[in-house]
UniProtKB/TrEMBL annotation:
<comment type="function">
    <text>Catalyzes the ATP-dependent phosphorylation of thiamine-monophosphate (TMP) to form thiamine-pyrophosphate (TPP), the active form of vitamin B1.</text>
</comment>
<feature type="binding site">
    <location>
        <position position="339"/>
    </location>
    <ligand>
        <name>substrate</name>
    </ligand>
</feature>
<feature type="domain" description="PurM-like C-terminal">
    <location>
        <begin position="205"/>
        <end position="275"/>
    </location>
</feature>
<feature type="binding site">
    <location>
        <position position="80"/>
    </location>
    <ligand>
        <name>Mg(2+) 4</name>
    </ligand>
</feature>
<feature type="binding site">
    <location>
        <position position="80"/>
    </location>
    <ligand>
        <name>Mg(2+) 2</name>
    </ligand>
</feature>
<keyword id="KW-0784">Thiamine biosynthesis</keyword>
<feature type="binding site">
    <location>
        <position position="287"/>
    </location>
    <ligand>
        <name>substrate</name>
    </ligand>
</feature>
<feature type="binding site">
    <location>
        <position position="110"/>
    </location>
    <ligand>
        <name>ATP</name>
    </ligand>
</feature>
<keyword id="KW-0067">ATP-binding</keyword>
<feature type="binding site">
    <location>
        <begin position="127"/>
        <end position="128"/>
    </location>
    <ligand>
        <name>ATP</name>
    </ligand>
</feature>
<dbReference type="GO" id="GO:0009030">
    <property type="term" value="F:thiamine-phosphate kinase activity"/>
</dbReference>
<keyword id="KW-0547">Nucleotide-binding</keyword>
<dbReference type="InterPro" id="IPR006283">
    <property type="entry name" value="ThiL-like"/>
</dbReference>
<dbReference type="InterPro" id="IPR010918">
    <property type="entry name" value="PurM-like_C_dom"/>
</dbReference>
<feature type="domain" description="PurM-like N-terminal">
    <location>
        <begin position="32"/>
        <end position="145"/>
    </location>
</feature>
<feature type="binding site">
    <location>
        <position position="154"/>
    </location>
    <ligand>
        <name>ATP</name>
    </ligand>
</feature>
<protein>
    <recommendedName>
        <fullName>Thiamine-monophosphate kinase</fullName>
        <ecNumber>2.7.4.16</ecNumber>
    </recommendedName>
</protein>
């Protein structure tokens, strides 16, 4: 491990930002000056979002490779931009590093960030680097471009609208359970023992937890199909919590159907192994980064035929509340059981 002090702050920054090429026409000036400069074509709007990740709160480096962490930190920001029905174009990355981290580790983190940028056509245009007392802190700000008439807020859902989700749910949560289990096994072992985590046949779950993707392909498909969601949100805290956000912002109620919730085969198997209810995992698990959106009922046929889109329910009047209809036709009130940063006392 090369101590960061041997390069110094400026040396490290130079190392991190060397050979960054700007790909977007909207990136006028990137890293290296006092600030970055961006410019979008006339008539376009700018979307800005930020996320702060703290070691021990949002990620665990015992099972998260730094490269994956960098990739995920970037992608979760892209996902927030995509959830507005916009395209991510630039990011700014601020990091706080304790003395535990050397030059190589920071380069690993950046290789993940840069891989995500290359995959999504996003430019890294600036950042900030500072020493910290303990742990790793990453804050990423993403700037995106939005056609003003295509904005999808949380507040536009109307009674009778259809409720749709992309992909499948609960896999990232099951991946996390698996990683936590293997961590516990690992910690209980003697140093001399050879540790092989039992991930075979569960690769998809691990990938969903460690390497999520932003569903930019979905917003592109909806655009091609001339479908404009009436409301949209990305699923970071679990379907239940995101539905309640839409219901609250749009002042509507929602009904979703248990048998309509898309769940992958590996997720279902894993849930059985852990003795967990798979629907609960899908409702409350989080970190799937799929899109949840509403669309007019008139588009039902069109939506039904789209690859990777699932119709899971419909929007109602607010007075009907928010509920899940189970397989045996019981109604269960939806509750936000997303991850709580500030536990209630
Ligand atoms: P200032 O003192 O003006 O904040 P810095 O020395 O912090 O300047 O940064 C110099 C340049 O390097 C700036 O353009 C900044 O955006 C970029 N930069 C600094 N840290 C990072 C980082 N971690 N990732 C990407 N760019 C960075
Ligand atoms: Mg600075």
């Amino acid at each position: 491990m090369t101590d960061i002090a041997t390069l110094g702050e400026f040396g490290l920054i130079d190392r991190l930002i060397q050979d960054i090429e700007l790909m977007q026409p909207s990136s006028i000036l990137g890293c290296g000056d006092d600030a970055a400069v961006v410019s979008y074509p006339q008539g376009m709007q700018t979307v800005v979002t930020t996320d702060l990740l703290l070691e021990g709160v949002h990620f665990d480096l015992t099972y998260t490779p730094l490269k994956h962490l960098g990739y995920k930190a970037a992608v979760v920001n892209f996902s927030d931009v995509v959830a507005m029905n916009a395209k991510p174009r630039q990011i700014i990355v601020a990091i706080g590093l304790s003395s535990r981290f050397g030059v190589e580790q920071v380069e690993e983190l950046y290789s993940g960030i840069r891989t995500a940028c290359a995959a999504y056509g996003v430019d890294l245009v600036g950042g900030d680097t500072t020493a910290s007392l303990n742990g790793l802190t990453i804050s990423i700000t993403c700037i995106g471009e939005l056609e003003p008439d295509r904005i999808s807020k949380r507040s536009g859902a109307k009674p009778t609208d259809l409720i749709c989700v992309s992909g499948n749910l609960g896999a990232a949560y099951m991946g996390l359970q698996l990683l936590e289990r293997e961590k516990t096994v690992f910690e209980g072992m003697e140093r001399s023992e050879d540790f092989q985590p039992a991930f075979e046949g569960k690769e998809y779950l691990i990938e969903r937890q460690l390497k999520p993707e932003a569903r930019i392909d979905i917003i592109e498909m909806l655009r091609r199909e001339q479908i404009l969601p009436t409301s949209m949100i990305d699923i970071s805290d679990g379907l239940s919590s995101e539905l309640l956000h839409i219901a609250h912002s749009s002042q509507v109620g929602v009904r979703i159907y248990e048998d309509r919730i898309p769940i992958d085969y590996q997720t279902a198997l894993m849930a059985e192994e852990f003795n967990l209810n798979v629907v609960t995992a899908a409702l409350n698990g989080g970190e799937d980064y799929e899109l949840l959106f509403t669309a007019p009922l008139a588009l039902a046929d069109k939506l039904q035929n789209l690859q990777d889109i699932h119709l899971i329910g419909h929007v109602t009047e607010a007075s009907l509340g928010c509920a899940l209809v189970t397989r045996d036709q019981k109604e269960i009130t939806l509750q936000a059981q997303g991850w709580q940063a500030y536990p209630q006392r």
